[in-house]
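Reopening this one. Same input as before:
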Amino acid sequence: MHAPAADTGSPPGLLRAVLTLLAGGALAQLLPLLLGPLLTRLYTPQDFGLYHLFMAVATNAAVVACARYEFALPLARDDNEGRSLLALSAWLLLLTTLLCAAGAVVWWARTGATWVLWLPVAVLALGAMSVATLLATREQRFKALAASRVVQHGGGALAQAAAGVAQAGLAGLIVAPLAAAGAAVLLLMAQARLRLAAWWQVPRAQLLAAARQHRSFPLLNTPHAFNGALLDTLSLSLIAAMAGAPAAGFWGLTLRYLKAPATLVGSAVSQALYPRLAQSQGLATAAARADVVRVMLMLGLIAAPLVLALWLAGPWAFARLFGEEWRAAGDLARGLALYIGVHFVASPLAVVTMAWNAQGWALRYSMLGQLMFLAGLAAGLWTGGLQGAGWGVSAATLLYFGWYFWKLATWPLAVPPQAGEPG
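Same output, byte for byte:
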């Protein structure tokens, strides 16, 4: 049995890998956050509204563009299987891009909005970024992953600022992050051990074998990922319908800033944790479960001060940073504090159920969580407006994630086969 690691040397320790990814991720997230107040002065609210609509649609398509087969790359037993998964992901990404191009043309014909024609480019860039990231994760090239995040997120924000200064309008707001994602893909693939060259020549039999071997990813993980992306769209639609468009703006800005720490830390931890768990080839060993518990405790200690800070200074901080008219976003942040805390801990743990072949359970439980989230949101809006929505979401997700953490911490351990029995 071969672990999906690099050719030479032992895999770096979990803490070292996390710190490497955190270093790059910190800069990658810091630049967009620092440039946020500037970007809101370079682009109109209408520009941002259309941009978020565009990216919501593009993200929903991109997360399922490869049917999630790229997430099986760290589980590949050898390079031949990895190469087959890489080629399979490339074919599916090409097909999805072509379908999105057709959809964008229809959208443009009906609305006359030329910006929708960038949709296939966005899906291709974001889908390729996912493939390149998971390939680098398989090969444990953590320095390259850290650098790519700086290029994608930090470079995208800088490019948006430059486009705004040049008065490029909505087109600049959309194209800048796509160009940065493309550059990040090139950076990752340039250092890859497995190459994408001649992927169209991989025999059909190998593609079908890889597809069958890892069919749980399209069957179980794809709807899970799509539903997760769809939740943001449904939430914004519900808020706009019940509390008005300004409330949706407050919601979007608040979550963008409050989820940034979870995005930074969660991505780094998951990219380091996944190959470590994948070495057990789908089994929940005692060592693997201990790693998961340590990660949860470590993230819980980091999340607690963040929750306290939002309770004490949320409205003041938002008013100082974005202007007095954004104080309502700070009130919302106070209500969402508990949700932000448990989400911070849960963010990197999705890879656990992938590595333990428990995607069916994860899909069912996530659907329950999405219903609880929307129910808490609707109840909070109905009883207390936007600030009530924050408290409603916090109450619902505290129950949901609390049970989720308990299940992972007490997950049944795999029973090793007895001598003479098949493995």
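So the earlier flakiness isn't reproducible anymore. For the record, The chain has two domains: 1-213, 215-414.
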